[in-house]
Amino acid sequence: MKVLISYGDVADQITALGLQALGAVNGLTVYVPPAYTRHAVRAPLDPEIGQKLIESDAARQITRAYQGCWGLRSTSCG
Fold first, then answer.
1. Inter-CA distances, 19 with 31, 43, 44, 45, 62, Å
2. pLDDT for res 69
3. Rounded to two decimals, what is the model's pTM?
């Protein structure tokens, strides 16, 4: 399974990288965008992230205010 983990700030990036490591040891392909792709204001989606999103089976957004997930090809993302 391929998973994209998006995040908001540095603290969220640490959580995302931890989830990436956890996923990897459990056989998942997990992509966490590099820090330089974060923007203070809304910006167009980085092409590399867009491609990884298209290729992903699931995506997860991590922010301090909200943690949610969207099953792109499945109905559950537990």
1. 10, 25, 25, 22, 10
2. 53
3. 0.63
